[in-house]
Design brief:
By secondary structure, the protein is of the alpha/beta class. It contains 6 helices and 7 strands, in the order E-H-E-E-E-H-H-E-E-H-E-H-H. It has a 7-stranded mixed sheet with strand order 2-3-4-1-5-7-6, sandwiched between helices. Strand 3 and strand 4 form a beta hairpin. Helix 1 packs across helix 6.
């Protein structure tokens, strides 16, 4: 069986100030995904746009990376890290088959739900996703995984901003741990060529 290499990138706002905020749910899920996929502890990687990197040399089919930038300007660091990841692959065939998975918060989904979308589908108004989509070159195999964070009753922009910037409760962090299990299945399926 032929395996694909998968680069899983989370976007959010930088740690430690924004650790475990709803808007950085992608980072929280990525942190727990490391446990599900048995990858190494996160370490800073200069060649990967100074983001946090986790991989497993014994099982090199997936690499996890956390963007170091603010959410709305995630495109350039994601593109830099993606290029570094591709350059680490041995053959043109591996580079051609590689997939980029972008994990981000999704305001329109209930907390704990995920939605998997292909690159051609809309960013749904998400500025971080728009930034990534605008920066990546054509031909990148991008899959977006939206992590539900719910939404406040009010649609006022100030209320929505306050909601997404609040810290998660312990119960919500536990939910994100379970969400990481769902995302691990997506990653494994993609690596196996099922998706």
């Amino acid at each position: 069986m032929s395996f694909r290499h998968i680069f899983v990138a989370s976007i959010g706002n930088p740690s430690p100030t924004y650790t475990n905020t709803l808007h950085s749910a992608g980072h929280t899920v990525l942190f727990h995904l490391r446990v599900w996929l048995h990858t190494s502890p996160f370490r800073k990687s200069r060649i990967h746009a100074s983001g946090l990197l986790s991989d497993d040399p014994r099982d090199p089919y997936w690499t996890l990376w956390q963007s170091p930038s603010l959410m709305n300007v995630s495109g350039k660091p994601v593109h830099t890290a993606w290029r570094a990841f591709l350059s680490s692959l041995s053959t043109p065939e591996e580079r051609k088959a590689a997939r980029l998975v972008l994990v981000h918060d999704e305001l329109e989904l209930p907390i704990g739900k995920i939605k998997v979308r292909e690159a051609e589908q809309s960013a749904k108004g998400h500025n971080g996703v728009k930034s990534v989509m605008a920066t990546l070159p054509n031909g990148v195999h991008l899959t977006k995984v939206g992590v539900g964070i719910g939404r406040p009753e009010s649609r006022e922009s100030s209320d929505v901003a306050a909601y997404v910037m609040r810290k998660m409760t312990e119960a919500e962090i536990d939910i994100m741990r379970d969400v990481a299990g769902q995302v691990s299945e997506v990653v494994r399926d993609m690596s196996n060529g099922v998706r």
